[in-house]
């Protein structure tokens, strides 16, 4: 047996956890639903800003120059919404989100995942109040900055929470709930926008203020769920960790082995005693660092937020009425959210890679077709009006794009980084990933209106080229993680053609003496 001194080769303990199982108890389901509802506030926010910026009373109060352009019939349709201050309203949230997701990665060691969810929800609530009562642009943007702080926290914690609570066999399925709730939040927002557009001058206040509803649901819900066993162990609360694990796995299951594996990983990490943000930059963690940063960054290069933020704006630009544009946005979002269910069903059955590949092909096809239709209908001058048939085709193609995103880069961005990162650098890695995601969301949201104005229909070719690059990247560098327990994830690098050069094939962990006999006993029972 691979035991030398107090060093034991975890891999040699057998495949017990390589293809982990575990059943889906009602308790784990409920707990995960509460955590995933963090996606609601993120989704609500994504959906609300796109609609609010098409409301005339809102534009009149905060961005009168955009309103003037909208009423100017000679205006190039591609350029109406090209206003830096207007895009700052949408994208400012991502700046504070970026910083706060990194902070969350640090403070989670003290507060636990649950604490981060509660803090994030509370700050978000404060931001919604400021937004609803905003009197000038400064107040409006300050409110959005607070929303960003909240979302940075909750987006950092919720996916990790879900991955750490879920039984390995169900990890992908449960984790997709986060994206599902993002989708539900977007739909809720788009529907509220549609109603609010008819309540007169205060419609936008209703839209922005209603964000308090999902925020309150999430924050209050988070107070009643247990923290994750890994997080509790990291904070030395072994008894509570045992209780939490029993609660989610069910009393009949043998949770001691899982608990002990977490304890030994934690001991090994503690013996290291270095800052996670330093450790993650070490050569041995290169695969995890690269993928945890690349996947969330690439997600934004699918072009999804062109659809999410500027869907209504795009539809107005091609000549659809205000209500029509909001309805088209709802259709798009329903397609996006329901397609996430495909992922819920498929991710643990067929794996992550297959979803990435299929969606890559579908997105490229839709984007190239969108570029061609915009080119033929609007041309480069952008002053022609769209025929009804062409508007419908645009909507259908955008639905194709949203659907592919909904079962691939949408949910997998929240799943894969959290599952490939070892416990000691998981919060740091997730923080870095979210920060990258927000950085590119910010950059692309900020420049999209300008890109559209200058590249015109070519904007969709730009995204299609990116999706091609990303799909090749997945084929070469993203290993399959389906069904592998978090504690055994190291094995995927050892078997990988490229990443194996960064990891020790004979990975060893230092195990405290008192656990050694337990693990040795486990090995004997596995062998017999
Ligand atoms: C992305 C957002 C996007 C949303 C659309 C999320 O996973 O991070 O940028 O707007 O999905 O549903």
Would you give an account of this structure?
The structure is a single chain. The protein has 528 residues and is mostly helical. Helices cover 74% and strands 1% of the residues. It has 23 helices and 3 strands. It has a 3-stranded antiparallel β-sheet. α5 crosses α6. The radius of gyration is 24 Å and the shape is globular. The structure holds beta-D-glucopyranose (BGC).
Q: What structural class do helix, strand and pairing data support?
A: mainly alpha
**Helix content range:** over 70%
SS summary, helix count: 23
What low-confidence regions span 5 or more consecutive residues with pLDDT below 50? 1-20, 506-510
Strand order of the largest sheet: 1-2-3
Cofactors and ligands: beta-D-glucopyranose
Mean pLDDT across all residues, rounded?
Answer: 84
Shape: globular
Subcellular location: Membrane
Organism: Carya illinoinensis (Pecan)
Family: Belongs to the major facilitator superfamily. Sugar transporter (TC 2.A.1.1) family.
Keywords: Membrane, Sugar transport, Symport, Transmembrane, Transmembrane helix, Transport
